[in-house]
Every structure is written in structure tokens, then in C-alpha cells.
């Protein structure tokens, strides 16, 4: 039961640690069923350790030989994705950028340990620049401009597409050719045309250009070209990287999930009780190879309904197919000397290669491997296959019954995730408006952290909506309402990205400082920011309490007051704040029409 609780609790640490803990349990269950004396067991344990150390040595060797290549490839994929979005903007089909993490985000959270600190921080900086370019492109895509300006925006977006593709190509160029490619990239960036000064969308274009130049500068520092100057090149300083998280996060995460009231804590207790009950059944019945019941529960019982049900079905089918194939392969492999060993090596390699690809195929090849392995150890394949089928059926049934008796329905907690999303977006938007009214009060690193939190909350809400669609309907949040909320919150997130891009351009900051005259300019922005934060908190509380929203601040009236201050207010702020007010008005309508309760 203790082992089961630990396996269940490990899901809060993410897929990597969760898989490692589950595979440890699987290995333990396989090992305890192999009839070995102490000496033989110690010998085989030593061989397993030696094999693990050999694999570790191979990994370290690959780190040394491919130092930085996987990280560069992930960054290149991220910039190519941005290039694709820029081409959509150029074609007039930009819309809202997907709120997904870049491919480089996962890679850079676990980079090559042999990377020099300066290189790792430069890669982090490149990822930050990609985030900023996405925000600037989103601002361009949502500008309300006339037809001639739209054609100019399309030409600019096409130029940005070419620059982003060039950055991606530079990242993946062979080491010997990087300096030349960086020089060509610098020439391309210096030759990019500057938008007309009078263009309404100039601020967003300047933001994109600035971050493209910054990314080029980072690449130039990684692969310098001594003595080669580029005419017209503008210098730009390197951004300060966000410091990485410390190793304390795992302990803090585990401690936060110990309570059974949370999703992870509930899953840990459910798994521990189910595994304990299965072991009692095995010991009481004396079922042959009964440990496979426990192994099946470890692999099948998951925190969510969709994974538990579908993995149960795939596990049952895969075990049945694998057991039959295992008996046949074992019989045929006897014909060739060492045939069983070769078959075991092939099946286990294929099984773990398919682990993240297809669970059904993984189950088939894992069962194949186990049947062949036990045949090598002297246990008849036919008997083993029959025992595997019986144990898998019992384990699958226990897992399904356990989830049915104590389910973790996404619908019962989804409204809280959406409430947290509203709070995160509200905090981010309020901070942006406050920084616009009072430049320099909120550090850029703080704004970036708020943006990251809001994006993470949006991703969580989207995942929650997807899980809701796979479950039987459960109150208080329906799949249809979740889809509406995701659409509106995505629109709001895109508007906040546009506001953030407006803040990061140098020209708007200068114009804001010049236009300041007492409270004539700051008061309407302050009032709108306060009302925005109050409205988002009220909507979040309404969703959390499953009640219609109460009386909300008059956002549209405050936005109109801001628009009336046109001589003192940057005209580019008006359409952005209008979109903010419209998004919140839509959220209010959704919650009043379809209260979560």
C-alpha cells in the first residue's frame, strides 16, 4: 500500500518522474517473481546496475558529442512555428496565436548538463525573445486598419517570416558554418525596411523588429564574427534571463499534494487502497502469478477518467494479444540457439520505444517480453500466458471499480481552474494598465512572470475543457460552457499580449512621458485598470461559488471616458482597451446565461 501511495503521489511531479516511479514498481514486481537464491539475485542485481551505468555512460557521451544540438533544434522549431504564424498574418489569416508552449520550453527546462552557463542562459534568452515576437505579431494581427495599411502590414509580416526562418536556419547550421550564417542573418536584419512613422501599427512593428534584432544579437554573441561589420545594424542589449527554479520544487509539490482533498492526493489514496486490496486477494487465493494483478493496477489506474477507461481497454486487449503471441514466439524461438534471448531483447526495446506512442502496442510488446523472459527462466510460456490473461482481467476490473466508487471527475473541479484563469488574467491585465499609466513602477521581469502564469492557467483550462468533453456530464461546469469560456479567455489573452507589446516599444514610452500632464492622462487609465481587476475577481468568484455575477463596474463607460481623453491618451491604447471591455462583457454574459451551478 505504501508503494502504491507513492506511485499515485508521483503524478504531481509531472510525466517524467511519474513514469520513472511506475517503471520502478513494474521492475520490482517482475523481479520478486523470479526464483533466485541470494547469490544469484545479487549477481543479477550487479549486472542490472552495470547495465544502468553503461546506459548512463552512453547518455553522457551523447551529451558531450551533441552539446547544444537538441536545444538548438528545439529553438529552431519554435522560431519556425513563429515564422508560420507570421506567414498567416501576412495572408490576413493571423487571428489569435495558439497559447501553447514553444517546443523549446520543455527542452530548456531540462537542458544538457554539460552546456556552459553562458550558452544555457543565451538559449533561455532566445526563448524569451520568441515569446515577445509572438506578442508583437499578435498585436499586428488584431489591428483595426484600412486596406492600404493592411497591405503594408502583410509586407512587413512577410519580412518577419523571412527573418524568423533565417534565425531558425542559423540555429541548426553546422558548427563550421555558423559564423557565416550569423553574418548573413545580421545583413538581412539590417536591410529590413522600417514601417512608415505615421502608421498606426508602427508600434507593434517596432516591437517585432526590436526583438528580432535582439535574437540576432544573441546568436552573434554565441557565434561571433570578428572584424566583420554590418552597415546599418542597430545594437541592442541582451535581456536579463529569468533565473531557473531551484530543486526544492519537488519537495514543496509533494507536500502540497499530501491531502486527500486534492486530485493528486485522492488518486494516491485510491491507488494505495486498490493495490492493497489486490495483494490481499492474491495472498488469500494463492493465485498463480497473482502479482500481475498489482502490476496491472499500477499501469491502468490513473487520476482521470479518460486515461483509466481507455488504458484499461487497451491493456486488456494488449495483454490478450501479447500472451498469445508470446506463447507462439517462445515456441518458434527454441528452433534457433539463443533465439529466446534475441526475441526478449527485441521485444523489450520495441515496448519501451512505443511507451509514449501507443499504449496498446506497448502492452502487446511488454506482455510478449515478459512471457519470453519467464520462458528463459524455465516457466512454461503457455502457463504464463494464461496467468497473465487472468491477472490482467482481475486487475483491470479492480481499477475500473475503484475509479467508479471514488471518481475524480474533471467537471467537479474544472470551474475552479477557470476561476484561477480569470484571476491570473485579471492580475496580468491590471498590472499592464498600471504600468502604462505609471511607467517604471512594475519591473519587466514581474510582467513577464505574470504573463507566464496567465498562459499556464490558460493551458490548464484548455486541458480541463478537453477532459470534460471525454467524461460523462458532471456538474457544475458543462463541456459547452467550458468551450465558450476558453474561446473568450483566449481572446482576452490575445488582447493582453497586444497591450504588453505596446508597453515594450520604446516610442510609446517616450510619448507617454511627454504627454503626462497631472492626472489628465493617468486617471482614466487608472480607473479602467481598477475596474478591470475588480470585474475579473468578481467573475472568478461568481464561477467559483456557482452563482451569477453581482453588480460589476461600468467598464464600457470608463473605456469611453478614456477614449474622450484622446489628446492626452495614446490613440493606440483605445482599441486595445475596447477589446478588453468587450471580452469581459462576453464573460459576464456567459456566466449570467449559464451559471455553473
Strand and helix map with partners:
Elements: H1 2-9, H2 15-32, H3 38-65, H4 69-90, H5 103-109, H6 117-141, H7 147-172, H8 178-191, H9 202-222, H10 249-256, H11 263-285, H12 291-300, H13 305-333, H14 339-353, H15 359-376, H16 381-405, H17 414-437, H18 444-470, H19 479-504, H20 506-515, H21 522-545, H22 555-564, H23 573-593
Short description:
The protein has 597 residues and is mainly alpha-helical. 74% of the residues lie in helices and 0% in strands.
Question: What does this protein look like?
Answer:
The chain has helices at residues 2-9, 15-32, 38-65, 69-90, 103-109, 117-141, 147-172, 178-191, 202-222, 249-256, 263-285, 291-300, 305-333, 339-353, 359-376, 381-405, 414-437, 444-470, 479-504, 506-515, 522-545, 555-564, 573-593. The protein folds into 3 domains: 2-33 and 260-405, no CATH class; 69-222, no CATH class; 412-593, Methane Monooxygenase Hydroxylase, Chain G, domain 1 (Up-down Bundle). The protein is mostly helical and 597 residues long. It is 74% helix and 0% strand. The longest helix is centred in the middle third of the chain and has 29 residues, at 305-333.
Overview features:
single chain; mainly alpha; 23 helices; 3 domains; 597 residues; Methane Monooxygenase Hydroxylase, Chain G, domain 1
The ordered string of helix (H) and strand (E) elements is HHHHHHHHHHHHHHHHHHHHHHH
Distance between the termini: 37 Å
Structural class, please? Answer: mainly alpha
Low-confidence stretches: 231-246, 506-512, 514-518
CATH class of the largest domain, named Mainly Alpha
CATH architecture of the largest domain: Up-down Bundle
Oligomeric assembly: single chain
Amino acid at each position: 500500500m505504501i508503494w502504491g501511495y507513492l506511485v499515485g503521489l508521483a503524478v504531481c511531479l509531472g510525466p517524467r518522474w511519474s513514469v520513472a516511479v511506475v517503471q520502478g514498481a513494474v521492475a520490482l514486481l517482475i523481479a520478486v517473481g523470479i526464483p533466485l537464491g541470494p547469490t544469484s539475485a545479487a549477481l543479477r542485481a550487479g549486472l542490472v546496475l552495470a547495465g544502468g551505468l553503461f546506459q548512463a555512460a552512453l547518455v553522457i557521451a551523447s551529451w558531450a558529442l551533441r552539446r547544444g544540438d537538441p536545444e538548438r533544434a528545439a529553438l529552431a522549431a519554435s522560431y519556425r512555428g513563429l515564422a508560420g504564424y507570421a506567414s498567416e498574418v501576412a495572408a490576413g489569416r493571423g487571428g489569435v496565436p495558439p497559447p501553447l508552449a514553444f517546443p523549446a520550453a520543455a527542452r530548456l527546462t531540462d537542458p544538457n548538463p554539460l552546456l556552459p552557463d553562458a550558452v544555457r542562459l543565451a538559449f533561455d534568452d532566445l526563448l524569451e525573445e520568441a515569446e515577445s515576437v509572438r506578442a508583437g505579431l499578435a498585436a499586428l494581427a488584431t489591428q483595426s486598419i484600412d486596406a492600404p495599411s493592411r497591405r503594408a502590414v502583410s509586407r512587413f509580416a512577410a519580412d518577419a517570416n523571412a527573418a524568423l526562418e533565417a534565425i531558425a536556419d542559423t540555429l541548426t547550421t553546422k558548427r563550421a558554418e555558423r559564423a557565416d550564417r550569423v553574418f548573413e542573418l545580421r545583413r538581412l536584419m539590417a536591410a529590413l525596411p522600417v514601417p512608415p512613422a505615421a502608421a498606426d501599427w508602427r508600434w507593434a512593428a517596432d516591437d517585432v523588429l526590436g526583438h528580432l534584432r535582439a535574437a540576432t544579437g544573441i546568436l552573434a554573441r554565441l557565434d561571433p564574427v570578428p572584424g566583420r561589420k554590418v552597415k546599418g545594424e542597430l545594437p541592442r542589449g541582451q535581456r536579463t534571463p529569468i533565473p531557473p527554479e531551484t530543486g526544492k520544487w519537488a519537495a514543496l509539490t509533494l507536500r502540497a499534494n499530501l491531502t486527500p482533498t486534492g486530485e493528486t492526493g485522492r488518486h494516491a489514496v485510491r491507488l494505495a487502497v486498490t493495490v492493497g486490496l489486490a495483494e490481499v486477494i492474491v495472498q488469500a487465493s494463492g493465485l498463480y502469478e497473482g502479482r500481475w494483478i498489482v502490476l496491472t493496477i499500477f499501469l491502468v489506474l490513473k487520476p482521470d477518467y479518460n486515461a483509466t477507461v481507455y488504458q484499461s481497454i487497451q491493456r486488456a486487449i494488449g495483454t490478450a494479444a501479447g500472451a498469445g503471441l508470446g506463447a507462439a514466439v517462445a515456441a518458434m524461438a527454441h528452433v534457433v540457439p539463443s533465439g529466446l534471448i534475441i526475441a526478449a531483447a527485441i521485444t523489450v526495446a520495441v515496448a519501451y520505444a512505443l511507451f509514449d506512442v501507443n499504449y496498446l502496442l506497448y502492452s502487446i510488446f511488454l506482455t510478449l517480453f515478459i512471457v519470453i523472459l519467464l520462458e528463459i527462466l524455465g516457466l512454461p510460456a503457455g502457463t504464463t500466458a494464461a496467468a497473465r490473461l487472468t491477472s490482467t482481467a482481475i486487475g483491470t476490473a479492480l481499477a475500473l471499480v475503484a475509479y467508479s466508487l471514488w471518481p475524480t471527475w474533471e467537471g467537479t473541479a474544472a470551474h475552479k481552474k477557470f476561476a484561477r484563469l480569470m484571476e491570473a488574467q485579471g492580475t496580468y491585465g491590471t498590472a499592464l494598465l498600471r504600468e502604462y499609466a505609471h511607467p517604471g513602477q512594475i519591473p519587466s521581469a514581474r510582467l513577464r512572470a505574470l504573463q507566464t502564469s496567465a498562459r499556464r492557467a490558460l493551458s490548464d483550462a484548455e486541458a480541463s475543457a478537453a477532459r470534460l468533453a471525454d467524461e460523462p456530464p458532471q456538474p457544475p461546469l458543462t463541456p459547452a460552457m467550458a468551450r465558450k469560456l476558453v474561446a473568450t479567455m483566449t481572446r482576452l489573452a490575445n488582447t493582453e499580449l497586444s497591450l504588453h507589446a505596446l508597453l515594450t516599444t520604446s516610442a510609446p514610452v517616450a510619448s507617454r512621458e511627454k504627454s503626462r500632464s497631472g492626472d489628465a492622462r493617468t486617471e482614466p487609465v487608472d480607473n479602467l485598470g481598477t475596474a478591470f481587476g475588480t470585474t475579473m475577481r468578481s467573475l472568478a468568484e461568481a464561477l467559483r461559488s456557482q452563482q451569477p455575477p453581482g453588480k460589476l463596474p461600468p467598464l464600457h463607460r470608463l473605456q469611453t471616458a478614456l477614449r474622450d481623453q484622446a489628446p492626452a491618451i495614446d490613440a493606440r491604447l483605445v482599441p486595445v482597451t475596447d477589446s478588453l471591455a468587450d471580452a469581459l462583457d462576453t464573460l459576464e454574459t456567459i456566466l449570467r446565461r449559464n451559471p455553473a451551478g
